[in-house]
Amino acid sequence: MKLLAQFLEQNAGLEQAKILLAFSSGLDSRVLANLLYSAKIEFQIAHVNYQLRGDDSELDAAFARDCAEQYNVPFHYLEAPLSKGSGIQEKARFIRYEWFQSLLSENQLTHIATAHHLDDAIETGLIHWFRGMHLMQFKSLSSQGVVIRPLITFRKKDLLLYAGENGLNWREDVSNQSNDYLRNILRNQVIPTVEANLPDVGKRLKYSIGSLNASALLLEDYRNLLWNDIAKQKENEIWYLDILKLSILQPKKAYLELLFSPYGVVDTTALVSLYAAENGKYITLGDYTLFKFEGDLIFANLNLLTPYNRFEIVKNSNRKEAELDPNEILINGSVVKHSLQLRLWNSEDSIYLEKGGTKKVSKFLRDLKINPVDKKRMVVIKDGEETVSVVGHYLHPDYLPLDKDPLNWLIRCY
Questions:
Q1: How confident is the model at residue 138 (pLDDT cuts 50, 70, 90)?
Q2: Most CB within 10 Å of its CB: which of 86, 118, 140, 263?
Q3: Which pTM does this prediction carry?
């Protein structure tokens, strides 16, 4: 019972939580389930079957269901077949956490608990170290938000001892013995070899990882202050970064790596070259793009910036032009010849000039000095081959609304 007392002491306040336990059927999750049950903490069990290990996967699922019945708690089950290959661990993690989050809200639960222990945290820290990550990207398996790790201060040997004392059985994942993954190489070969020569290495690594985490938190606070000073404004997930302020940072490489560390590894040489580049030049950083525009670098995730993709027409509208929202256009519907279409502009699109002649939409947008991000999501309304509108910026003179005329159409874009 010693471990139960330590568990309660090191997880003060957990008695008030309503927990969704991520249950693998292995030793760690079995011990955590038993501790929660013994401490009379409310919990439910969730198990994901990726069907990667044939019959063993089905036996794991059956064991998880049996444990839920034994503890008399609700059981949640998801089948999410995956094929072995690169990135499989990331895919599996995305699937289960997306599902866990949905279960939280559906069942009025407060936390997701995983059974990671101190050995897991040490292995994760070493993996980050060997992969050469920036300190800001260094994360151990500490609790974060609704995800808690109540066993993170305990060694695996503590869990084995507790399981033996309480007669607990569990399912052993034989793939843990395979050295196909870096984590297993560390777990099965590297750490045992070091421990044989340095018996208290676990204690030393725990201190080092804790120190790195604390340093990362301090650095994150400083990075956020710096970012808020350089980012002149943020709107719709778009940041406008002041090139002058970026250019005076020294040492340049260290500061830029710090600023952009949450988004991936930045090519600092390419980034600096944008400072003096022409408008529209860009580099990519993970899912993000950095565009040069005037005195700024515009930083945006283009996947999150969706253009208008549908519209509705209200005929016989009595709206006035002065009352229109940015997504609304008023036109003379009597001159429309075809079915109107809404789409992204392209290099072939032209607009008709009031004084005669035409101009390419690309040149029109350049003349307006539309920034590259807004330009990429700009849409046009077409009447056959005629460009009726560049939404928010242009209306064909032949389609101008009539004054107080029932033939006017209101077009509202979404």
A1: confident
A2: 118
A3: 0.67
Provide DSSP, 270-303.
HHHHHTTSPTT-EEEETTEEEEEETTEEEEE-GG
CB distance 351 to 338 below 8 Å = no
Residue with tokens 């001159």: 335
* 284-314 per-residue burial string, b: 16 or more CB within 10 A, e: under 16: ebeebbbbbbeebbbbbebeeeeebeebeee
Distances (CA, A) of 299 to 100, 254, 307, 308, 384: 31, 19, 17, 21, 36
Would you say 256 and 262 are in contact if contact means Cβ atoms under 8 Å apart?
A: no
pLDDT tens digits, 337-390? 999 999 999 999 999 998 889 999 999 999 999 989 989 889 999 999 999 999
Element (H, E) at 100: helix 88-106
What are the residue ranges spanned by the domains of the chain? 2-213, 236-304, 311-413
The rounded distance, in Å, linking the Cα atoms of 228 and 241 is 9
Give just the sign of the alpha carbon dihedral 303, 305, 309, 310.
positive
Please state, in angstroms and rounded to a whole number, the distance separating the CA atoms of residues 399 and 377.
Answer: 23
3-state helix, strand, coil in the chain (%, to 5): 45, 20, 35
8 Å CB contact between 186 and 123: yes
User: Structurally, what CATH architecture does the domain formed by 311-413 represent?
Assistant: 3-Layer(bba) Sandwich (3.50)
- Phi and psi based region of residue 167 (left: phi greater than 0; alpha: psi -120 to 50; beta: remaining): left
Per-residue model confidence as pLDDT tens digits over 139-197:
667 767 899 999 998 999 999 999 999 999 999 876 666 777 788 899 889 999 999 99
Instruction: State the Cα–Cα distance between residues 221 and 227, nearest whole angstrom.
Output: 10
Assigned fold of 2-213: Rossmann fold (3.40.50)
Nearest to 226 by CA among 256, 266, 264: 256
Show the tokens assigned to 149: 């790790």
Q: What Rg do the C-alpha atoms of the chain give, in angstroms?
A: 29
